[in-house]
Each structure stands twice: as structure tokens, then as C-alpha cells.
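Ligand: guanine. Inputs:
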Amino acid sequence: MQIIDGKAVSKAVKEQVKKECDELKAKGVTPGLAVIIVGDDPASQVYVRNKERACEECGFYSEKYALPAETTQDELNALVDRLNKDEKINGILCQLPLPSHLDDKEVINRIDPKKDVDAFHPENVGAIMIGDYNFLPCTPAGVMELIKSTGVDVSGKKAVVIGRSNIVGKPMAMLLLHANATVEITHSRTVDLKEVTKTADILVAAIGRAKFVTADMVKDGAVVIDVGMNRDENGKLCGDVDFENVKDKCSFITPVPGGVGPMTISMLMRNTLTAAKIQNNIK
Ligand code: GUN
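Predicted complex:
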């Protein structure tokens, strides 16, 4: 069994992005990312801080908008409208979840699809479905990079995704399909889940429940990717996979933390670089 080092793969992606960013700067273009966070959810604050730090590492220009929890939909919409028009800003990311009185769908739909570095806008989601896209959704794209780093060829393999969210499960299945896997999406209503997950050569867990995937659910030699970010009974950070028990059955497995998490941010940097190139007609 080998543990996939998400930090190392992420660092390599960021180094490549930085190199391309330097080339863009030589042409007078600096990629710019605006990050919006509303309220004071501690996990979101950590994610946003990490995104700002990654911008610095890559040489990007960044702006952070930390808005109070009482922000109205009109105020948030006005900020998005302003950032849509701002030429220094190539990518706009609104950290989710938003406080419950705000409508995340309204915000997602309002962001200019050309600046939608999360790839959440329906236009970009549709483009991904067809396989003709500029931006890949950050977390699934990060998972694909991690699988690539193992050297395992996805083509013709059976891939099972646990979870069907718009952010991870559904686009994840699509990217695996584009890589010629035979894909099955499972979820909370799936009957005999274990029978399905045991068929997976590649198993991606994106459920949001601590240590949900146990050793009896995993095929010998599978590649196991853990997208989960939970707290266990002792308040310790853990994934959706029961790592200690599952690890000996796998060929490759991602740890939590240090697996998928760092990749999501690197892919956001790559999308912001792509956005800057497209908006400035640079190949
Ligand atoms: N919250 C959790 N993951 C994400 C993400 O990838 N993008 C945004 N905007 N919010 C998130």
C-alpha cells in the first residue's frame, strides 16, 4: 500500500502555475482572484486563508471580501456585479456554505461564467457534461491529478463514487467517465452499497460522514480517494474512510488531512490562471 502525498502533488501543480504566471506577467498580465466569505464559519475561514496564501505562492493578485453574517442578498449581488466588471479580477470565488438567509444559487448564477473559477455556474457545468470546458471543478480535478500521480490507468477500470453532490459527486463521475472508466454513482438510497463499492478498482468517497467506508467495503488492491473532511468522536480531523483499517487493503490511498484538500486549492490556482489567459486572449 502506498499513501498518496497530496501536499507534494499540490506543490508540483502550484510550481507549474507559478511558472506560467511569471510568463503571463512578462506579457503584462497578472492573474487576479477575488474571494468572498460571508459570516464567521471557522472551517470556511481556514479554507479562505489557505486560498489567499496559495495566491501569494503563485504570484497572483488577490482580494478578500470578508462580509458580516448579516449581509443582504442585494449587497452580495452588488459586490459580484462590481467584481464581474473589474478588469484586475479574473476569477471570483464565493466560499460556500453561505448563511441560511442567502441564496447560493443566486450568487453562483450571477458570477460571470468566464470568471467562475469554481466551475459551479450552469454554463460551465453544462460544458463539463459535454467535455468541452475551460474550467474543471476544483475538487474532482484535484482527485484526477492524484489518481494520475499513482500511474494507475483509469481507462476501462470500474470506478465507484459515493456521494452525488453538485460540487463533488456528480462532476467527479463525469471526469472519471471522460477518462474512460466505467462509473457508478452511489448515495444514501443505494441498496447494498457494500456490494457495489466492493466492485470498485477506484473508489472515491465524498459522503461527509466520518470513517463511513470500512475495510469490508473495499476491493483488494483498490485505489481509494477520500474527499471527506470531518471531525471524529475526539474532535480530530478525519475523512470519510476508516483509514487505519482500510489502508492495508488498498494499492493507493489518500490521507486526511494531506490528500485531496491541498489539491482543491492548486486546481483553483490553475483555473484562475486559465481565466486570466482567456480574458486576455493568451493561449
Ligand atoms: N466550500 C467547500 N468547498 C468549496 C469549493 O470548492 N468552493 C467554494 N466556493 N466553496 C466551497
